[in-house]
Design goal:
Layout: E1 4-9, E2 12-18, H1 22-26, E3 53-59, H2 62-66, H3 76-85, E4 98-106, H4 115-138, E5 142-146, H5 153-164, E6 168-173, H6 190-196, E7 200-208, H7 215-223, E8 227-230, H8 231-236, H9 239-250, E9 256-260, H10 280-291, E10 300-302, H11 310-330
Parallel strand pairs: 3-4, 3-5, 5-10, 6-7, 6-9, 7-8, 9-10
Antiparallel strand pairs: 1-2, 2-4
Helix pairs in contact: 3-11, 4-5, 5-6, 9-10, 10-11
C-alpha cells in the first residue's frame, strides 16, 4: 500500500505524496539478458549507508501557471522515470546509491482557477515539499528533485537552510532570475522570497536572457548583490561559460544548492520554451563541474520540463535521464 499525505486547506487535499511500489518500478524496466539496468540496483531503503541520492518527482504545473506560464510541468517526472530506470548499471554507477522515494501529485491538475487561488495553493505545496525533503537532508542524503515548476526551489532552499542552521548559497542555470516581487507564491519568485526571508546568503544565476528579465528584476539583483551572467556573453565566447562557472564554484568551499531550469536548454519542451539558449551538453557540464568540485551539495533541482506530446516526452525523458546520470556518476 502506498503511504499518502498531503498539503491542505481545511479538509481539502490539493497535493499528495505517495511512494511508488516495487511492482510499478519493475513494470517500467525492459530487461535484457546479460545486462543490468539501473532500476534493478536501486537502494532498498534511503537510510542505507550505501544510499547517497534520493529521487523525488513533483507532478504539478500550478506554480508556472500562477506565474502566467505554460502548463505541462506535471508531466516531466513520468517522461523521466522509465528512461532513467533503463540506463545501464555498469562501472560508472555504485549499486544501491540511489533510492526512488516517490512523487507529489496535484489532485485536480485541470481545474480552472484564478491567479489568487493558484498562488495560495503554491504555498500549500511549499509546505508539503518542505516536509518531504527535510528528513532526507537531515540524514545527509542528497535529494534530486525532478519535475514541477521552479516554485519548488523555495521549500528546497528552506529545508537546506534549516538543516545547515544558516542561510545557504544557491546557484542557478536559468534564462530567468526568478526574482519577481513577493506578490504571492509562484514559479517566478522563489529566489526573491528566499533572499528577503533570510534563507539565501548568496545567489548566483548564470546565462540569463537580457530580453526576458524586467528592469525591476535587474535592479533587485543589483540591490541584493546577486551574481549573474548573461547568455549573450556566452554566445560571443562559448568558453567563457566554463571559465565563469569554474571561477565561481572554486571561489568558496561552502555548501552549494544546485538549480537547473530546463528552460535554459534551447528547444527543450518547457514552461517557457525558447528557440535560443544553451545546448544540453552545456547543462550537463554545469552539473558535472559543480558535483565534481569539493563543495557539498544539499540538493539538485531540475524543474520546468513540460512535455505535452509523446515526442516531447521522449526528448524530456532522455534529457533528464542524462542530467541525473551526470549527478550520480560524478561523485562515487
Amino acid at each position: 500500500m502506498m503511504e499518502q499525505y498531503g498539503g491542505t486547506v481545511g479538509d481539502q487535499v490539493h497535493f499528495t505524496f505517495r511512494h511508488i511500489p516495487p511492482d510499478a518500478v519493475n513494470n517500467l524496466i525492459a530487461r535484457r539478458s546479460g545486462e543490468t539496468k539501473l532500476g534493478e540496483v536501486l537502494a532498498k531503503d534511503w537510510r542505507d549507508a550505501s544510499c547517497r541520492y534520493v529521487l523525488l518527482g513533483i507532478c504539478e504545473d500550478i506554480g508556472p501557471r500562477a506565474n502566467n506560464g505554460l502548463g505541462g510541468a506535471r508531466n516531466g517526472w513520468d517522461a523521466f522515470l522509465p528512461n532513467f530506470l533503463n540506463l545501464q548499471a555498469n562501472r560508472f554507477i555504485t549499486p544501491g546509491s540511489v533510492y526512488l522515494l516517490g512523487r507529489i501529485d496535484q489532485s485536480d491538475p485541470d481545474a480552472e482557477l484564478d491567479q489568487a487561488t493558484m498562488r495560495t495553493r503554491v504555498e500549500e505545496l511549499d509546505e508539503l515539499v518542505l516536509r518531504t525533503v527535510l528528513p532526507i537532508m537531515q540524514a545527509g542524503k542528497v535529494p534530486i528533485v525532478i519535475g514541477g515548476g521552479h516554485n519548488n526551489a523555495y521549500p528546497l532552499i528552506q529545508a537546506a537552510s534549516k538543516v545547515l542552521g544558516r542561510a545557504v548559497d544557491v546557484i542557478n542555470l536559468d534564462p530567468h532570475a526568478d526574482c519577481r516581487p513577493l506578490e504571492g507564491r509562484h514559479s517566478g519568485n522563489s529566489f526573491s522570497y528566499g533572499i528577503i526571508n533570510g534563507f539565501i546568503r548568496k545567489y548566483a544565476v548564470f546565462a540569463l536572457h537580457r530580453a526576458r528579465n524586467s528592469e525591476a528584476i535587474l535592479q533587485f539583483m543589483d540591490d541584493h548583490n546577486v551574481y549573474h551572467t548573461f547568455y549573450a556573453e556566452y554566445m560571443m565566447d562559448p568558453l567563457l561559460f566554463h571559465k565563469d562557472l569554474g571561477a565561481y564554484v572554486d571561489a568558496a568551499s561552502t555548501p552549494l544548492c544546485v538549480e537547473l531550469d530546463m528552460d535554459v536548454i534551447r528547444h527543450m519542451p518547457s514552461s517557457a520554451f525558447s528557440p535560443s539558449g544553451m545546448v544540453l551538453e552545456e547543462a550537463r557540464f554545469y552539473l558535472r563541474r559543480i558535483l565534481g568540485s569539493p563543495r557539498p551539495v544539499p540538493y539538485v533541482h531540475l524543474p520546468e520540463a513540460a512535455p505535452t506530446t509523446p515526442s516531447q516526452g521522449r526528448i524530456v525523458g532522455k534529457a533528464l535521464a542524462f542530467l541525473v546520470h551526470d549527478v550520480i556518476s560524478v561523485r562515487r
